[in-house]
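Fold in tokens:
===
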Amino acid sequence: MVVEGVISFENNINHTENNQSGTINWANGFLRLQKSAPISNLSKQVIFGANFLHKPQSEILTPAEVDLPSENQYIEHPEHILHEFEWGIWFNEVTQTLHLKRDIFGTAPFYYLHVSNRFVAFSNSLVTLLQMESARAYLEVDKARILNYISYRRDQARSYTDRTFFENIRTVLPGHTAVINATEVNLERYLHFSPSKWNNITTIEELGQTFKKLLFKSVAKSLEGPTEPIGSHLSGGLDSSSLSTITNLLNPDAELHTLYLDTKTKYSDESDYASAVADKIGSIHHKVPPQTNDFALFSLYTSLYGHPECMVISPSAQGSLMKKAAELGCKSLLIGHDGDSVVGSGLELIRQTYAKRNWEELKSLIRLRIQYTSLTKNFPQWDAYNDDKKYELYKRSLVVEEFYRELRQLSVSQAASLLLTSSSQMNVSLWHFFKKGVSAFKNRLSRISGDNLPTSVATEYLSDTEMQSDSQETSNLLRGALPEQYKMGLDDVFNAQSIIASEQFFALGRHYNIVNLFPFYDKDLFEFCLSIPMRTKFGVGLGRQHFREAMKDLLPENVRTRPLKANFSIYGRQAALRLATQSKALMEKEDNPVWQYVEKSKFEECLSILFTEGLPDYKHSRSQFFVTRTISLAIWLNWLRENNLY
């Protein structure tokens, strides 16, 4: 569904074009709802409405049949009706105040453009907002956002903020309500997490049972309403396998289609795991090849988002799954999106233990971890080694890596002290630290001599632009007064990459006429997982011990206890190579506006590296990032120009 509206703080509005169903009009504004997607449970948790200056009765739009609370409860503050819903919009004509409430995890976006004492325009579709006549004069590309976007690892790592690719357009933060009047915009946090309420649950058996209960409840809530036939992405991983299995247990007679993305690339093949789950639950299983018309898909999806593609790998992966689900007649698609972040693995405990210099505990954790990890990339014979050999190699690699990770923040004396302590306490020869340092120095020299990847492809035009400020980081605002121990969990869930991905899912769902469901985004489930100590999650060294305990006897054992995840690096490079080839005509245009932001010679250097076989993975990975981001930016700028928005 698309909702849009405009409020003028200067003049009344001519409603000639707004007299249609699904529209609420008042003297200086309107609110319009377009029902363009299947009804989902999310639709039943939303309300759009307004109360008026000269009419006693409020008007309410809802995309589905919902149980409305009595308006008599909200005579003094009609906008408080939003408290009853997970997201929505309310305009109070008496106070001339607009309220935009976004859901807890940001799965449905709200964009707005506020010009003080003039107007505010808003929509849950950025494209719709951009095309509003009132907004066009205020559209200005945000250089700082572009600099973030084309800076390696900067864009994915940052916390979600209200900034967009346009200077004057903002988003409402998850867990917040934007309260907008003629002169200002105030963000009000309505969400408060309380993980401590779960602290009485301590044994692994109790933790598993509680996790199971909460996840079952969330899946059931997601599937309320007319959702058959049901689609479920089934990769063969723990998250998607659990969702597919629980869906079957809750709806044993439902028509359940499980969809496996079949990239046919080395290291990403999880088909045996997915088939084992599909066989166990008796689903109608489909192997879905990703579409290969990457340039056409990037162009189409950009026109749906209103901003450049932000997925880490080609969006053809998720787009192909949605397209197939829609072709099968599915009205919804269950996705294990962000399950890793919500659940937490506990594996970061190893790094934290090094930082605390708890050497004996670190040795103990490494002994456990080597049973379930693999360092074959660095040590090709890893699988043939005994446990003692694996322990020594893992310990050496970890300690040297963590030392150099901390090095930049240390003084010379502190660095020397940590070096000697790490070496002696963990029995790692100083030679290995020296060898790593020499390698890093050689890499730096090669960068200086031009024999390495660029660290940035930005032009001088962007060089004076400051990186976007993160003062309004969602994770920090939502953490509030919670102790520091919860910071990592909140940072993982409310990072920019995850939430922007959700926004893109929202736009793609409208296009494919399907509702994407994310059962791991559940407040109780997330709070509960936040409360579980890191050591408990780490368990026997597999990680996610509470989750694995919950799925005992429900999943095939080889799926429940699988230690490693698929690696899509080869598929990602293949998709990037296709995109580069298919976009050649666009990138060779002399008037391509992307070269205002990206140094063409550096792009071509990255392109050459991407097409060269036999190079180290890190070179292909970084060049893939720069090539994909540059082409995505070019597609977006070209779309803006074609639509007279640039």
